[in-house]
Amino acid sequence: MWGVIQLIVLTTLARTVRVRTVFAAMAVGFYAIGPVTAFLQLSWIRLAALLLGKSVADMTGIGSYTVDPFLEEAMKLLPLATLMLIPAIRRQWSVSDCVLIAAATGSGFGLTEHLFRYANDPHAAQAVAGGWVVTIGSHNVLVPGIAARAESDVEAGGGGASDAPPPSLDLPHTAADDAADASGPAREGKEPGDYEGDRIAAHEAEDAQAREEAAEDAGDKAADDIASQKPKLQPRPPESTPQEQADKAADAASQADADAAAAQRAQQDAVRAADAADIKRATADPESDADVAAARERTRAAQNASEKADNAALDGDDPWDPNAPNKSAADAFDREAREAKDAQTEAESDFARRQAADADAAKAEAQQAKDAMDAANAKAAAAREAATNAARDADNAAAKAASDAARAANPAQAAADDAAKALADAQKNENDAFFHKDAKGYHDARAALEAAKQKADAAQAAADAARDGRSSSNHSRVKKP
Predict the structure, then answer these.
(1) What is the widest separation between alpha-carbon atoms in the chain?
(2) Whose CB among 134, 265, 305, 382 lies 3.0–4.6 Å from 141's, allowing a Cys bridge?
């Protein structure tokens, strides 16, 4: 806020915005941008931790130097960028106005950030000359008062020395931690020489453990010798290697792909056959069928005979006499014409049913071909996945074999690598204990970290000595006549 007030005074002759507008920008940064930014950070960190299988503390540490800085700065500029979308404001405001509004928003955001960071530990603040000192873990943060702040600004403007910035709370280990570590023996009541004795005791414990392991190996060897004297069972057939399994899976995947391609071609042929059946059904002429043609010919002949009989019946003395010979003949021919028409209709219906049955059978074959293609594709996909998994297993087995061979060839370096991994785990535990604000847990984690560091240094020194010994031995063999 003090910096914003200074900017208001310095830009009095250049700015066009009012003082209350600047304070409104500060309120937006304090009440809106700060909480929204914190919500966005917590949201993406928890989502990423869930998707990546990491802890929230680990993702918080990663986000502090990857996504969070860019997100915070973008959110600080969001109100100004939104205002610049209004044409009237864009034409009226000067560069000084934009700088002042951006600084006010950032000041409000910074106030929110510090409240989120230190408001839960008011008991950690201690009054000192010129302000307060907030102690969080092993970090000391100076909060200057108004008079001290004004004095420091005057000294900085006049070329005087200024205090170094406080250590960042975003980093789990800083220079302040190193200073606290250096005073560790005095605070814990130990003399500096006591740590040398602890290191010697640790080496003695390692030697005792090595002797125990050697005794266990001797016992295992004796048990193996006793077991070797017993009747041996028939050897089992050799198991295939991971690479052989990967080759077999690749061959199976190739065959499955070929089967899927054949099923796809069969499905395409079946679809074309079904389309041809539909076209034939829609365009087929019933006259092309022998039964339909015969029925139609019979119908035409019967209708012609019926017409002639009707004409003959009209030539009699009484055309409506049912006993007249011509009338009886006309009725008989009329019945034959109707029967012929019914037979034609039945033949045409039978022809249509046969065409529909052929089309339905072609569609059913096309559907069966599609189902077979889907099953072949699924089988090919499963075979490809199995081949990929087998290839990955073969690669992992090869990498493990290479790693085991390297460790067997250089056991000292292998022990150094294991100690380095243990050191990394101890460093992570120390970082987690710092963020949990547990003084005892943090102290224990620091002690474990120191022990792991000493062990890693000793193991690396042994590995370096072994490497130097091998180098000098190789060099002497090369020079030997």
Answers:
(1) 154
(2) 134
